[in-house]
Amino acid sequence: MMVPVDAARGSAWIADQLRQAIVEGTYKFGQKLPAERQLAEAFNASRTTVRLALDRLETDKLVARRIGSGTFVSYRQPGETDDIAEITSPVELIEARLAIEPYMTRLAVLNASAKDLEKLFEACDLAEAAGNDATRFTEWDTQFHIRIAEASHNPLMLWIYRRVNEIRAHDQWAAMRDKILTPQRIADYNRQHRALAEAIASRDVEGAVAMVTSHLHYARRQLMGAEGSV
Fold this sequence. Notes:
The chain is mainly alpha-helical. The chain has 2 domains: about 10-75, Arc Repressor Mutant, subunit A (Orthogonal Bundle); about 80-230, GntR ligand-binding domain-like (Four Helix Bundle (Hemerythrin (Met), subunit A), Up-down Bundle). The protein has helices spanning about 10-25, 35-45, 45-60, 80-85, 90-110, 115-130, 135-150, 155-170, 175-180, 185-200, 205-230; strands at about 65, 70-75.
């Protein structure tokens, strides 16, 4: 279903129209948007203007753009992940990550481009620059693992990992995060991330898989300790 046609009013207006269509469910989660050419015709705008509008939506995490495939809705209606987040314990979340991330990392070692590696090391740098700020560290810790998923160059793997990460970002984890992320543990996680990034960059498949597995087991032990002290 196409959004209403209107005269070209700039990328901000087009972004607002598409945002409304996504939030109202005209375009649903996972659905592919019309091609840039089709949107340009619908809005009587240039493809450059449409592309800028899609940039805005991507920045707002309403859509995800895949080279060669198109633009897909990544927005979920409120409450879509709440139920599963409420019944998933921190340890269960780590167990799910242990099932996914080692193979995701293997794919990243095999498929990562130079740009992917640059973004991975950037996430390391910014997580380290966060110092002992648990909130800022968590933002870049999250980005580090998302960027490994992106480096796998497997769209389905990235989609699955984003769903796992949405649960990890749920409000109920905030108190647990603050309990776990002491300055020493932040430093430990940063060292582990740096070593993992270097293994991926060196194309060391077995080393990278062993590192991410060890990293997640370390996180699991911290979570179990935190849960036991509640």
